[in-house]
Amino acid sequence: MTTTLLEKEKQITHFSFTGKGSEYFAIEIVNIVLTVLTLGLYYPWAKAKSLQYLYRKTELAGTPFIFHGTGKEMFVGFIKGVVILASLYAFMLYAVFTENIGMMLLAYAVFLLGLLALVPLALHGMMRYRMSRTSWRGIHMGYRGKLSDMYSTYLIGFFLTILTLGIYGSWFVVNLRKQMIDNVRFGNVRLRYTGDGADLLLIHFKGFFFSIFTVGIYFFWYTKNLLHFYVNNIVVLQEDGTYSRLQCQVSGWEVLKLTVGNILIVVFTLGLGVPFTTTRTMSLIMNNTVMSGQFDADALVQTEEAYNSATYESMTDMMDIGVI
Amino acid sequence: MTFEGKYYNGQSSKGMPAHITLLPDGLRIDYSADEVLGSVYWELGGLHRSEFNDATTLLRYGKFPQQSISVVDKGFKEALQQQYHGAAFLKSGYNSVLGLGCAGIAVLALSLLGLLVAFVVWGVPALADRVAMYFPQSYERQLGEQLYTKMLQGYQVNDEKTAALNAYLSELDTDLDYPITAAVVTSDEVNAFAIPGGYVVVYEGILDKMEQHEELAALMGHELAHIQNRHSLRAMTRSLSYYMLASLLFGDISGVAAVLVDNASALRNLEYSRSLELEADREGLELLRRNELNEQGAILLMERLQSGSELEMMAFMSTHPNTGDRIKVLNELIGGGEQPSKKNPELERHWEQLKED
Question: Which residues form the Peptidase M48 domain (chain B) (predicted)?
Fold first, then answer.
């Protein structure tokens, strides 16, 4: 895919998703069978396989992304995650069975503090792992954030959110995204997140009240606004000072069609159709997202070093933290 | 054979036009970048597995940073298969499944669905029963005691009737592995239930309905059978395993803890399966037989419960389905021949006390 540099002003680079529901469905069927047969041990390999498929079918400027992660690598993180979470739950269950109020409170405190301490670690680990294992045209992404920064961002945000009865939550989310996205490198290109907490708060306020007034119909437009807020505030900076912006053009109406369709698929296939909802969602978002500005697809240069870090990938997964 | 494609060297994202030649033990890539010509040779062993290709075939080679080529040519894919059939980088179980086509995938999915249903219908209850049966008795008793105390907190216990009921029960030959503790609570509800470990709660409402003590014996026989055969524990492990299965599927582990915390209320609304109810009926009848009491008591109890007004019956009947069927089964079990039955003055004395207001 060659890019014409004649029109210096604005240039559109497209994202696209070429995956098919039936293909992804077949992959997931194999994954489920193997995971069940191995009593869950295959899970990391299954995860790697579906990520490899989804990446392979996600294209930027006509070239697909590649996910380099392997089941073996993720297995380590998976085991760590399982052991840590299982011991937290075991303690909790033990306390419940003792029926001792003090013990239960203690277990609950340990549980919450444990989760609180784990989330930043998991987020950091996931960013490092995911980014290092992602490449496009042979150029790897990378994450340069420090764990200590992640901890301070997370803990400060968490407590301020509690102190302000949730109001600060919007700034918390934005700061967390900044911490994660601003530290991403894509070869010699950097990312910036330019969202503002006040804007997010406004979106939430509007979303909340309009959803009530419209008996929930506005919810889809609320979701669209959130999507736009998360995607359209990502700026791609090149070394020469030029930049481009991500632009998501999904409309509220499309979100509505997507959501209703997905729900119907899940219900009528008894959940087996979930892979179709994934490809539908990916198609809608990717095929309606472009990079607009002066992105030069040929100018990326490898800046990452060979990777061999330990992983926490599966931990985020188990803790149900949806990121990007 | 030579194909046209793009070559990426792993240092820059610039795709260099390239000619790819398939050689017996590897690929030769001749590329041109800004008038400069270059050539690399890829040994087959260094190629990474290439899956999920579509119109474009993507091949990656070597250690970090990997080189790669992309070729938009269906012929390239076929040529690779022909030339390097069986090579490691082309092997993929997933690709073979994708090659099955829609019909094959559908068959696979349906058989998976079948397996899943079979597992849920037969596998889970069998496993859960296993677990319930291996549950240590002392622990079951401890759990039961906690549930019992917790449950009684919501009711007023009628001490006199409780004493009479316990005396009645100790007079019965129950053949139970558990010591029995029973309580009569003040409530118009027509209900009674068993708690694991040997605890029984009887509502005054159901006692008021009864006219003969054999009905009480039948009711007790039924409830004690639930205890002896660990029915509630079995039902609990079943619902818990379904819950765990669901939370595994939907990735919500915290729900399991919630179920455990909530088990006291769950127990009250627990539905035993039809087969467990019939088992309890059968063994309840057994108890009447062992004590040489009139077996018609079991039928009377059923009819009494059935004949009450709809609303009254709700509580007991909603957890005990198919009363008509149960009466039929009981009648078959009793059979035509009259069993020997005696009057039991001791039991009747306690019964009188129970019926006193």
Answer: 168-333
